[in-house]
Fold:
Amino acid sequence: MGGGHGKYCFLPGESAFLSAFVNATQPTTATSRRALWLAGGSLVLAGFAAYHNSLGGPFVFDDVPAITGNASIRRLWPLGPVLAPELDGGLTVSGRPLVNLSLALNYLLGGEAVRGYHLFNLLTHLLAGLTLFGLVRRTLRQRRLAPRFDAVALTMGWAVAAIWLLHPLQTESVTYIVQRAESLMGLCYLLTLYAFVRSMESPRASLWFILSFAACLTGMATKEVMVTAPLMVLLYDRTFVAGTFRDALRLRWRYYLGLAGTWILLAWLVAGTTGRGGTAGFGTTVGPWSYLLTQCQAIVRYLRLTVWPDPLVFDYGTASVSGLGEVWPQALVLVALAAGTGAALASRPVWGFIGAWFFVIMAPSSSFVPVASQTMAEHRMYLPLAAVVIVAVAGLHAWLGRRGLLVCGALAAALGGITFWRNVDYRSELALWTDTAAKQPLNGRAHNNLGEAVFAAGRPAEALAHYAEAIRLQPAAPEPHYNLGLALARLGRPVEAIARYEEALRLQPDYPDAQNNLGNALLAAGRLAEAGAHYESALRSRPGWAEAHSNLANVRLEQGRPAEAIRHGEEAVRLDPRFAEARLNLGNALAQTGQWTAALASYEEALRLKPDDADAANNLGNVLVELGRLPEAIGRYERALQLKGDYAEPRRNLAAVLAHLGRLPEASAHLRAYLHLRPDDQAARAELARLQALTRP
Structure:
């Protein structure tokens, strides 16, 4: 397994460490505690070295709805909404309560600061690597393998864990925050098997059985791939411990009954997602046969990437294979490997177990059950990669003996270097989607998301071309039409923007973001009733959406219905206490009803959350005037002008207050500046003439 990435670096001193480590490890069955700590510590340090540059990467793609748009993680208590959030079933966290709980813990500790989320992912991956190290080491010391491998069990276990831990194919499961679903599931899967192995060795077997069951149950609450864990534990028992399935079940039937019972939880969770929001299962736009053929292409590609990890692609899109003629060579390869695995299960069970590990774990996401939202994804190799690594390490050991383990150390270092450079692609959404679109030019979703990144960088005109390309490649996808509407609105082309929002809604009527932004465009055009109707539609699709409540509050205020405006504004603030615009809109509604003290508090909180909000500063000045606190009002108006020099309203308001205080020259100066911005305001012009007359000698 080598690296074909453009540039890479070796992790410092890793090969030298392994050389000393191999020489220091004596071929005895008793391994020193010092050697174990040295091995485990080096894995942790190597993992941090490879991934430390990923800790500042922003939220990308599905991170956004699962984290920044996920109201269920804003509070850890009550726990019910965290474990069973009312979300679109297609989100990565849907039907996966442990994943959502982990995000809620991150939010509790650090809000939306990305570093904590990345650190959690990295620690999960490191724990999984350490568990794999322990599992391989203890497996090599099992009765069937000990005569050949007991003396090198520690070093081979270390080599397998190091290569698996540092392989760049794992970056999607570690650096892409929301794919902690994969790495958390992987950790639970490995712990289930590791605890079973320990139960066979420990005098406290019942405790390890309980831990194995708990890990399996937890994994079922993490990701659906965990469904295969009880089967792999049984196969491990038959291969390395009991010798036959009959003996394994006879000796430990209560334990296996418990593991099978965890499927009940998984079945209930899967049923609750209604086919992952229509993106998975037999009712999707991709048929089982087409998906199976696509997986022939995908799995062979994954295998190639284990050997030559380039190019790595963040998102392969939704393309599928239509006929066997397109993938028959890959299909033959997989049939041969599957047949070899089946034969080995009967005649060479250890090799059969390794092959089964690969195929069985891949099966839930990479067989004939369609996952239409992403027909190919590198994170699906998170656990199956271990089988390929074990084969490689065993082969090098058989060929080169102890020198093979030195080669493994050098290989792990090289792969860690490639991982480091792959993480550079995650430094920004713009960098990630530029890389993805370049590698997958026919992926319409990549072009759409690249357009979003360009738009977020403040280049809406440039984003238009990317959205147009996405529409050309995927004309039936609503997202590019919606995003094109956003860009057109930003460029001051509201009529075209409204048409694009309407096209997005024609393609997907239940599209709350399009409903919300169509409402914004209609509100700007003065079509209040239509805007309100679209905000209401958005809230029917997404009831706990603070932004739509805040926007509806704005409409109701414009319609002269302040009581409703206050109700929606308060709901927006309740749903998202950190939403500055909701505080501003609520303050406007409170001010219109004369609730000056409450309006003051709302505006002050809006400014605390968003200190550069000129509107909040101006409106706060207005409330201070109503409360008779004129010097403070002057300060707020001046602050609004500092934030936005061409803002007319604070000029007019400041002139009025200064005139009231008898500071006529200053008031006249501000009125002149105001009239430069609003030359048609005859009332202001008359006021300026009056002030000038009063100041003449």
The chain has two domains: 14-424, 612-697.
